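quick one, 643 residues, struct below
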Amino acid sequence: MIHGKDGWFVDDDGRRLILRGCNLGGDCKTPYRPRNELPTREEFYDWRSAGFVGRPLPEAEAADHLDRLQRWGFNVARLVVTWEGLEPGGPGAYDEGYYDYIERLVALAGERDIRIFIDPHQDAWSRWTGGDGAPAWTLDQIGFNPRTLHRSGAAFIHEETGDPYPKMRWPSNYSRLACQTMFTLFFAGDDFAPGLRIDGMDSRNWLQGRYIEALARLAGRLARFEAVIGVDTLNEPNDGHIGLADLSRLERAMSKVGPMPSPFEAMAAGSGFPREVDVYGIKGLSQGVIGREILGEHGVSAWKEGAGCLWRREGVWDESCGKPVLRKPGHFAAVRGTAPHFAKDYLRPFARRFGEAISKAAGSGRFMLFIESVPTVSRPHWNGSDSEACGVSGAVNAGHWYDNLTLYLKRRIPFAAYDQEKERFIFGFRAVRRYFAEHLDRIKRRGIVDMDGSPTLIGEFGLPYDLDRAKAYRTGDYRTHVKALSSYYDALDANLLSATVWNYSASNTHARGDGWNGEDLSIWCSDDWKYGRTETGEPEDSGGRALAGFVRPYARAVAGLPLRMGFNRRSGRFELEFEPSPSSAPGTGRLTEIYLPDLQYPGGFGISVTGGSHRLEDRRGHTLLLVEVAQGAGTCRVVVERR
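---
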């Protein structure tokens, strides 16, 4: 079992762990399809027929994929599931076949010593609001008509627009009516929409209750698998309208790309009053207004016939002389006279409620709770008393980090980066490298300060593989990707951080990427496998992309306190320095484990250990270096060099 202590993951032997792995996988955002093409509109709106068995790995291929991850040195996977997949047909209509499939997949991972934590994934609420996650019936229950969300401007949906999908447009849905409304209701419906009742309950308790019950059922079924170490509360939760001071202005946005309405403009357009709104794009060295565009269609409502806009019923806006009029611009600015704090007032109580249900289903102390907050906006807050109260074994700071400039431009500029938290550009090769390490250190410190010493695992990071208009797909040259990934892992090593790269999609192709909103971040691609491209010379690893960037040595378990770890990809030099714990003396069996991949050492390696001795275990595709500290050693230093 694994638990958290003083900012570290710790095993039953007291060794500090570094967990490295991937997200399985990006295609879990959409139902399983034999081919990774865009569904027709008819298929898209036939949500009751959707099934997720086979996501992330078709069962007949699962063992081969997991063997590959094991060879690449991954000792953890963030297993992506969706609420839609668990409960697709309606409240209480669970897909038992999907639950069964997840159990079988977890068992296969455990056989390969790959630990699992469950990621209930969402982006922009659901597929029908331009993202993924929640079932369609959640929208129906609060009065939305999923079939008119795109036309009314309440969402921007790939299945409605067809190809090509505009680059990184999907985050703009967080500023559209449907997504903002659903998150507001999920976290604070009782405060801001008290008139809405579902089955006699306020919308917060009803929506959270359905979601938590679906995940608790899964946690209960997975409790018997030792490989499963925890459950994430919710991928990248959003604060919706909560705390907005003036609905007539665009106060915050996850990303400013494309038409960006103010909340009031979104409400009006969603009720059939088209609005001319600002269009954002790259302007100079930042995102700025590049034009204007009409959002919505006259007379087309996002709401079901007879329902009408929820926010109009709550008195936020009304119609006067045939025009929409904002009545309460500060409706979401205060609760009982106090400005709301999303992380403390809403996210933390939700996480506690979630943890209580997970513990009740799986057993007290069985799982760790992985917690994240709104990216770049608010920090999760947690302490030991929270864990004790809800019965989890501890919490994990599971925030995400991306090289945003590369992600949004789909082009790597090695001497430039953009810090989205501080809204500033960084220039210079060394400055960019320092920024990567410094930003990850910020996230790590939040686990220490705001989460009472919880360990940090960067739940997502990565880069698009279709950089430079997918040049690598034509040439087979992934050197740019290797350099980018190496810089990310260098920053992780500098902070001794655990992390799961986004992502491994078994269905990835050059034509359709990860199969969702034009994203293509998978470290494996079936087309590269078909073409036999490999950096290792081993056919079984064909399909791995830019392997030299992420298949690299690292310390998996340290019998003491890690002080420093680093790898120079060009020279092949790996260094680890740690302070042995008193209980790691010879004969205790507490060994430090270091993963050494054949990929980085094709001609072998030399090893130097100061303050201890070592032995080697040959494994498929890699070597495991086991270090035993010497009696009385104050520090232990391990150096591995390429021959």
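The chain has a mean pLDDT of 94.
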